[in-house]
Amino acid sequence: MSMAKKPVKYYVVDAFTESAFKGNPASVCFLEEERDEEWLQAVAAEFNISETCYLSRITHSLHGISNPRFRLRWFTPVAEVKLCGHATLAAAHALFSSDLVDTDVIEFVTLSGVLTAKKIPAIHITSASDSQNGEAQDGFYIELDFPVDPVTEFSFDESTSLLSEALNGASIIDVKRTQIGDDLLVELTSVKAVSELQPKLDAIVRCPGRGVIVSAIAP
């Protein structure tokens, strides 16, 4: 007679936003026992959002001396992937917001090596009146340490018009290509140009490589 599996605790976390139903969502599932690949993929397909990640504890922290370690895996609705930024951020947020860790650093063992997430205290002013009254809401930022993906030169002469179309005519300073992810890394003229960018997704699909990363020099 087979033993019933334990229920799986999960969260849906909206990354890169402070408001619900915005940002980039990811499902975060806490596994207390092993699940097979078929089950992991089926659950990711059931959630049907860009990424579902699975956490299983490897080690606890030792009186705050060592960092807790978790195994972390990421699945899209159709396949496992080697790395996902926003789902890692979501996993770290879920752990830091729970009673599962008592340190400010978490280590994730992944297909891309050991990644770390660090909790950094921050003070968020809740409103102008709160600021005047000296009241603030405690919060935190999360700093992620990811493996470096080296870039190579990319001759985009033939793809200039397509890339320009994909970025809706934004002024392009330089383009590189990442070696591991095979993404185009595009530098624009300013942070404002990045924040106001309205990309054309149908044109991005036709660009070389896996995807397009847009950035600019910080002020």
TrEMBL record:
Q: Record's superkingdom?
A: Eukaryota
Q: Which organism is it from?
A: Glycine max (Soybean)
TM ranges are none
**Protein family (similarity comment):** Belongs to the PhzF family.
Q: Lineage, please?
A: Eukaryota, Viridiplantae, Streptophyta, Embryophyta, Tracheophyta
Q: Name one GO molecular function term.
A: isomerase activity
Q: Which InterPro entries match?
A: Phenazine_PhzF-like (IPR003719)
Spell out the SUPFAM superfamilies in the cross-references. Answer: Diaminopimelate epimerase-like
Coiled coil residues, start to end: none
Name the UniProt key words of this record, in alphabetical order.
Isomerase
Q: What is this protein called?
A: Uncharacterized protein
